[in-house]
Each structure stands twice: as structure tokens, then as C-alpha cells.
User: Fold this.
Amino acid sequence: MRIWFKFLLWPFMVLLGIGLFGACAPEPATQTNVYQQRTISLNAKENGPAFARINLEVPIAYDTLLQWVHYSDCNSCHRYKHRFLSKRNCLHQENGWFDPLTCVDTLARLTITHELESTGLTAFDTAEVRGFVFSKNRDRAARKAPPLVWLASRLEKIDGTNFIILDYNQIGPDRTSSSRIEARSVINGRDVIFEFESGTVSYPDFRTHAYHTLRTLAIQSVPES
Assistant:
């Protein structure tokens, strides 16, 4: 009699245990808890009309947006920059042909850089991926810097646009390690670079966040008169 009672009671105990576990288990984090939707305009010339608008999702931790023109020593060398980062990060806005201040941060950031005027560029192709990798390796060797640790170099289509993806770690002059992901494309004849940086290779979820942002890009080109 006791044996049969145990067999009858066992299914109810299993169901009760599952119910209690489900009630106590934490809900999985949703994207709304991690990312925020942002929109930026890429301007033709300083304070000029937009040649494109970009919708993207960036980490909520990036609570600050800096926008400025980085002037250099020639008109065609000027670049517009849009930087998403935490207000706890280094807020320096580099300028000029040579800027001696270098930020050494453990936090991550995203900088979108583009030319002010169209140079007539056309979409990147696979051959240019190899060219960018060769150029970066050559520059490191010329400066006698430790070689880059390559994690990825490829051509990828995002929102119908060709992007060159360069993903690597590097050792700086002070022997600190950092991570970089560069996503480079051509929008309305301009070179546009999405550069994800982390001051340390151990920054949590750096690459997860960076690739999520890239996958959410929605690019709207604006016709220019």
C-alpha cells in the first residue's frame, strides 16, 4: 500500500518542484536592458546638410555622444567624428595633425568617422580587405611595434552595404593590451569608419556588443544636390 502511494505521489512532487523552480528562476535579460536605439546624421561639410542617416543600437552604458570636426593639415584630411562612450570615460576630443594627448581607458567606446566631402569612392571589395591588412601590418613593423593579433578580416554585407571588418588585438608602447574592431564602408562616395575600441582585451562583452551594434545598422543615404 505504501509503495503504490509513493508512485501516485511522485508525479505531483515533480510538477510542484518544476513550478517552484520556474517561479524562483530570474527572467532572462532583454535587449532593452542592454541596448538603446540611437540615430545620427552624417553631415556633408561642417554644419552642412546630411548625406546619410544611421540608426543603430549601442550599449546603454554609452550615455554620452560627442560630435566634432577633427581638423588636420589639409582640407581633404578633415574628418567628422561621432563618439559614443560612457561619461566616466576619457572625453578628450582629439584635433590637429598631431595630438599629444592619448586616452588610456579600460572602458569601451565607438567612434564613427567620415570624410566631409565625397571623393567618389565606390563600394569596397575583397581585394581591398587584403590591402588594409597589409597596410596595418606594414605600419606596425615600420614603428617597430609588436605585431597585431588578427582575429578576423573579411568583407561582409550589412544592410545591403559592403563593409570591411578588421578585428584585432594590439600591444601599445606602454605594453598594455587593447582590442579594436573596425568596420569600414563607402556611403555616398565617402569613406565611413565604425571603430570599436576597448582599453583592455578583458573588457566584458566588448565584441558581443560591437557585433550587435553592427548587425543593427540601418543606413539611409540622402541625395545631394
In short: Confidence is low (pLDDT under 50) at residues 1-30. The chain is about 20% helix and 40% strand.
